[in-house]
């Protein structure tokens, strides 16, 4: 059997998966749509934090999430959530992770053992530089997961809302 026939058969077999992934991405984008706003923070229909990007300008929380991700998370998970040989691509993982699970894993950590190797996500529940900004991290990674936020530093950001300043001062102890 020629290589060309094998590749063609494989491509045909994978075609339904590709259209399923596209439908899943569209469904995720619809679920992530901001429907309400409270003090500059955007929420989806279920009340979970989400992003708002208009005319290339990201909301403050998405920008803050980008900054926090690149100060504490990218070392293991790679730039822009694309993964590394050390830790998974969060831009992919977040496609199937709900808000509560994300908060739990970041705060408490996680250990996966399988295939002869062990992966450990340390707990960040005691790290204020992460813990105080978990919603921001979630929002940023959620936007990256469905392609709403491109790779790299967002070129334009909304002003920091007073609620974000107040939360930061309260959480960080300042």
TrEMBL record:
<keyword id="KW-0349">Heme</keyword>
<dbReference type="GO" id="GO:0046872">
    <property type="term" value="F:metal ion binding"/>
</dbReference>
<keyword id="KW-0732">Signal</keyword>
<protein>
    <submittedName>
        <fullName>C-type cytochrome, methanol metabolism-related</fullName>
    </submittedName>
</protein>
<dbReference type="InterPro" id="IPR022411">
    <property type="entry name" value="C-typ_cyt_methanol_metab-rel"/>
</dbReference>
<feature type="signal peptide">
    <location>
        <begin position="1"/>
        <end position="25"/>
    </location>
</feature>
<dbReference type="Pfam" id="PF13442">
    <property type="entry name" value="Cytochrome_CBB3"/>
</dbReference>
<dbReference type="InterPro" id="IPR036909">
    <property type="entry name" value="Cyt_c-like_dom_sf"/>
</dbReference>
<dbReference type="InterPro" id="IPR009056">
    <property type="entry name" value="Cyt_c-like_dom"/>
</dbReference>
<feature type="region of interest" description="Disordered">
    <location>
        <begin position="150"/>
        <end position="174"/>
    </location>
</feature>
<keyword id="KW-0479">Metal-binding</keyword>
<dbReference type="GO" id="GO:0020037">
    <property type="term" value="F:heme binding"/>
</dbReference>
<feature type="domain" description="Cytochrome c">
    <location>
        <begin position="64"/>
        <end position="127"/>
    </location>
</feature>
<dbReference type="GO" id="GO:0009055">
    <property type="term" value="F:electron transfer activity"/>
</dbReference>
<feature type="compositionally biased region" description="Basic and acidic residues">
    <location>
        <begin position="156"/>
        <end position="174"/>
    </location>
</feature>
<keyword id="KW-0408">Iron</keyword>
């Amino acid at each position: 059997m020629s290589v060309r026939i094998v590749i063609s058969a494989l491509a045909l077999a994978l075609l339904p998966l590709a259209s399923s992934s596209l439908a899943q991405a569209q469904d995720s984008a619809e679920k992530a749509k901001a429907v309400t706003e409270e003090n500059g923070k955007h929420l989806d229909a279920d009340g979970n934090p989400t992003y708002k990007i208009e005319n290339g300008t990201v909301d403050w929380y998405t920008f803050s999430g980008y900054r926090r991700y690149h100060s504490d998370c990218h070392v293991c998970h790679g730039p822009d959530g694309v993964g590394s040989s050390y830790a998974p691509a969060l831009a992919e993982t977040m496609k199937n992770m709900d808000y509560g699970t994300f908060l739990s894993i970041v705060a408490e950590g996680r250990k996966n053992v399988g295939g002869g190797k062990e992966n450990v996500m340390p707990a960040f529940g005691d790290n204020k530089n992460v813990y105080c900004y978990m919603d921001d991290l979630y929002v940023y990674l959620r936007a990256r997961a469905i392609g709403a936020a491109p790779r790299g530093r967002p070129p334009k950001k909304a002003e920091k809302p007073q609620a974000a300043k107040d939360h930061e001062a309260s959480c960080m102890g300042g």
